[in-house]
């Protein structure tokens, strides 16, 4: 479904990503793991069009999409959920969902509420008054309203209590069951391993490891070198 082929991304003159390559098949949850500042968010932004790599290619469903704008990629089915949620604080839960609704027939508010039942209880509450877990659910739910084929989830469990993290993990797995592929950026190794099929580790802007969950679980040296905070 997605092929990231040797991308180099910069912030101004600062070279951040160095020949990053990864792939994702339809129906997979793939983890992009690494410490804070390793390059996870820059990779996500490069895929969703918020940043444009100076070298390398991005291919989605067999078509090159390098250089396309974010709204063009959303129309193709790629949707990014940032780590800071970016919900519209002054709008209600219902309004946050409706503002990005695409009339594809795939996702509606009712279907989002089936995936995230806690939101169904507070449709008229302003997003600025939601808890951290509720904002995380709303951010993902809002992305679903665009009818995505691929979700880019950037640190979805950051700052959440363990009980809320477990609930969110269950809901992410439900999205996979619904046919949505997911690239998951995380520092939380325990949470990631409960969800992902394969893993890439990024460090200092370079992919330094790729393998299955079982291979990563059995490689203590790699975990200590690149993931232990």
CATH superfamily: P-loop containing nucleotide triphosphate hydrolases
Any low-confidence stretches, pLDDT <50, length ≥5? Answer: none
- What is the ordering of alpha helices and beta strands? EEEHEEHEHHHHEHEHEEHH
Say how many strands there are.
Answer: 10
Q: Count of DSSP helices?
A: 10
Terminal-residue CA separation: 32 Å
Outline, from the CA principal axes?
globular
The CATH C-level class name: Alpha Beta
Main structural class: alpha/beta
Helix content: 25-40%
CATH architectural group: 3-Layer(aba) Sandwich
Number of domains: 1
Describe the largest sheet.
Answer: 6 strands, mixed
CATH topology: Rossmann fold
**Share in β-strands:** 25-35%
> Order of strands across the widest beta sheet?
6-7-8-3-9-10
The quaternary structure here is single chain
Average pLDDT over all residues:
93
């Amino acid at each position: 479904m997605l092929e990231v082929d040797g991308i180099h991304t910069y912030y101004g003159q600062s070279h951040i990503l160095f020949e990053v390559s990864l792939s994702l098949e339809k129906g997979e949850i793939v983890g992009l793991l690494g410490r804070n500042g390793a390059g996870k968010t820059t990779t996500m932004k490069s895929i969703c069009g918020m940043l444009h790599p100076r070298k390398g290619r991005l291919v989605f469903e067999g078509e090159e999409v390098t250089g396309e704008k974010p709204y063009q990629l959303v129309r193709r089915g790629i949707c990014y959920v940032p780590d800071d949620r970016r919900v519209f604080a002054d709008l209600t839960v219902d309004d946050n969902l409706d503002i990005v609704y695409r009339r594809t027939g795939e996702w509606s508010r009712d279907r989002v509420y089936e995936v995230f039942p806690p939101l169904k209880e507070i449709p008229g509450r302003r997003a600025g008054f939601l808890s951290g877990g509720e904002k995380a659910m709303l951010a993902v739910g809002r992305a679903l309203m665009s009818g995505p084929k691929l979700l880019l989830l950037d640190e979805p469990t950051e700052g959440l209590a363990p009980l809320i993290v477990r609930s969110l993990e269950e809901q992410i797995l439900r999205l996979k069951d619904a046919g949505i592929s997911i690239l998951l950026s995380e520092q939380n190794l325990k949470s990631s391993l409960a969800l992902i099929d394969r893993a890439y580790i990024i460090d200092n802007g370079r992919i330094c490891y790729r393998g299955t969950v079982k291979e990563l679980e059995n490689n203590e040296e790699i975990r200590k070198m690149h993931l232990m905070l």
